[in-house]
Amino acid sequence: SRSINLAVIPGDGIGQEVVAEGLKVLSAVLPQDVKLETKDYDFGARRYHATGETLTDADLDALKQHDAILLGAIGDPSVPSGVLERGFLLKLRFAFDHHVNLRPSKLLPGVATPLAGEPSIDFVVVREGTEGPYTGNGGTIRKGTPHEVATEVSVNTAFGVERVVRDAFARAQARPRKKLALIHKNNVLTFAGHLWTNIFNQVAEEFPEVTTEYMHVDAATIYLVTQPERFDVIVTDNLFGDIITDLAAAVSGGIGVAASGNINPSGEYPSMFEPVHGSAPDIAGQGKADPTATVLSVALLLRHLGYDAEATRIEEAVSADLAERTGKPARSTTEIGDALAVRVAG
Amino acid sequence: SRSINLAVIPGDGIGQEVVAEGLKVLSAVLPQDVKLETKDYDFGARRYHATGETLTDADLDALKQHDAILLGAIGDPSVPSGVLERGFLLKLRFAFDHHVNLRPSKLLPGVATPLAGEPSIDFVVVREGTEGPYTGNGGTIRKGTPHEVATEVSVNTAFGVERVVRDAFARAQARPRKKLALIHKNNVLTFAGHLWTNIFNQVAEEFPEVTTEYMHVDAATIYLVTQPERFDVIVTDNLFGDIITDLAAAVSGGIGVAASGNINPSGEYPSMFEPVHGSAPDIAGQGKADPTATVLSVALLLRHLGYDAEATRIEEAVSADLAERTGKPARSTTEIGDALAVRVAG
Ligand SMILES: CC(C)[C@H](C(=O)O)[C@@H](O)C(=O)O
Ligand SMILES: CC(C)[C@H](C(=O)O)[C@@H](O)C(=O)O
């Protein structure tokens, strides 16, 4: 019989609330014969304040035993900027080699967008997750003096670029429109830019059916607000991906519905799924957070584990739920989770 | 008697056409007693193909004699990506220490925006122009092999950050709302991020009337499309500034009306003014380009040289022209330039 052994990291702020609903929908959608085991991990601000730890080697060993990880949100104003990001979120992505950071953007019927007209938005960003300016390379000299110099080093390898570019081409090939855009800044960041562009062009030869284009990151932000329908699959560097996926989330319904997967395609390590939004401490504990982004992250998780039909059921339930929201009073976190659980079970 | 000794770099593509209109409006707005001298410089793709040169030491010496520089656009698909950018545009910014890259965003009445509703947009971005990932530091090893590694080094100095942060605070102080936002990614780029954040907080103490906030660059893209009215003055790093000013241009009427100044505030070197748009080779030579961004760059140039009344006259003429455009047939580059010249003279 089948089973899913899931690590659950509710985390900080609204993380707890939204993860509870994600798990509710997951339980409701799974067939009887699938055994779901979950184990909670108490990472985040509370543990950091209590122990000074963010993510230890023992933690990584424990997490590694799971089939996948569901994360709510990590981050709290009581912790200095960078400590949990570098000490937990990025540490986990690097340790588990989550090199494919998958972020779909789809504007669903009935969902508000800040854009005028009725743009049709349905694309997916494949963001590199283990290189670029995120490696933590760099440093500071003469800190705090008028002669301080701080550097950040973006590290890009043929190995790292090729595997994510290849993943993106395969995804583009599998979609009806078969389009792939490389987003970089190769006219200024010429060293990394040439590496990305050359590998992109090489791999393109193996996918003759995929239509490709190159776009500078600055120009891409313009197209994301003026012609978002132009995009099908986007592949990009870690930092550019961070920036454009927030913009993509904003135009396609907001971070309340933006899901993401930090994927290790080889399966050597468990992949992690999380809403794009953060811990939103200002509304934490009030039952106001929209769990939809987490529920959609559960769908990505299921698809990653091979439960395609269940993933699709969740996505359809979310579409139906969103389509009926207009004009109705706001519901609580639990109410939305309950409604989605009913729909997927039905 | 007063005089302006201007270096004119029409450049590539639509550069020629829009600069001609910029100069037309400049001549029309200047009082009789101001002597305008201009000298054309033939930089860009043509010169590169003919001589292999982009910007020589002798060119820099010649440009240095001028009071200011007006540039149309540089760039052509016939030149490999990066050659003119690094060899001309960035070389000039670095050689003339253009550390304040000023990019105002104002949504004028009658101008279309891709955003729904009627957002009120009036802010200015102060982008650092001589540091960050733009320095060209970095390199490549094992080029073209499966073991290639390419790095890009972002260099940030207390000297460089403090002067641009101070400039931005002074601009915020001089505006009615007196608000300044620092945009960075200090939770990931912790070395550079701490330098920027610490200096920002230190300088803030000297400007108690200025309200400050910090925002990650990814979150900033969300606010730029959902709450653009939130911004008054923004200060940011060279690369983040490149990205968000294109987005800012897109939401506030498009790059057809986005002006910029590459400013050396000390006056040791001439400052350069240019539209944010590029050379647009697809529409070059057809009289289709909108010269408004260049005309607004001329206004920034005049204000920089102390001709405040004339700068304001140009801005008012542009506002009036834009307000009357809705529903009218499109005009040619020359027709728009003529109309603006008549308005500023009138
Ligand atoms: C919190 C931060 C480290 C993270 C990132 O920059 O990747 C976040 O912005 C994201 O996009 O997942
Ligand atoms: C053309 C390029 C070098 C330039 C930049 O990146 O600064 C442009 O995008 C700009 O914003 O002026």
Automatic annotation (TrEMBL), chains A, B:
Pathway: Amino-acid biosynthesis; L-leucine biosynthesis; L-leucine from 3-methyl-2-oxobutanoate: step 3/4. Its cofactor is Mn(2+); Mg(2+). Its EC number is 1.1.1.85. It comes from the Bacteria. Binds 1 Mg(2+) or Mn(2+) ion per subunit. Substrate binds at R93, R103, R127, D218. Mg(2+) binds at D218, D242, D246. Keywords: Amino-acid biosynthesis, Branched-chain amino acid biosynthesis, Cytoplasm, Leucine biosynthesis, Magnesium, Manganese, Metal-binding, NAD, Oxidoreductase. NAD(+) binds at G278, S279, A280, P281, D282, I283, A284, G285, Q286, G287, K288, A289, D290. It is an enzyme of class 1 (oxidoreductase). InterPro entries: ICDH/IPMDH, IsoCit/isopropylmalate_DH_CS, IsoPropMal-DH-like_dom, LeuB_actb. It catalyses: (2R,3S)-3-isopropylmalate + NAD(+) = 4-methyl-2-oxopentanoate + CO2 + NADH. Residues 5-340 form the Isopropylmalate dehydrogenase-like domain. Its main location: cytoplasm. The record marks Y134, K185 as: Important for catalysis. One of its GO terms (molecular function) is 3-isopropylmalate dehydrogenase activity. Signal peptide: none annotated. It is found in: Cytoplasm. PANTHER family: D-MALATE DEHYDROGENASE [DECARBOXYLATING]. Catalyzes the oxidation of 3-carboxy-2-hydroxy-4-methylpentanoate (3-isopropylmalate) to 3-carboxy-4-methyl-2-oxopentanoate. The product decarboxylates to 4-methyl-2 oxopentanoate. Homodimer. Belongs to the isocitrate and isopropylmalate dehydrogenases family. LeuB type 2 subfamily. This is 3-isopropylmalate dehydrogenase. It comes from Streptomyces fuscus. The gene is leuB.
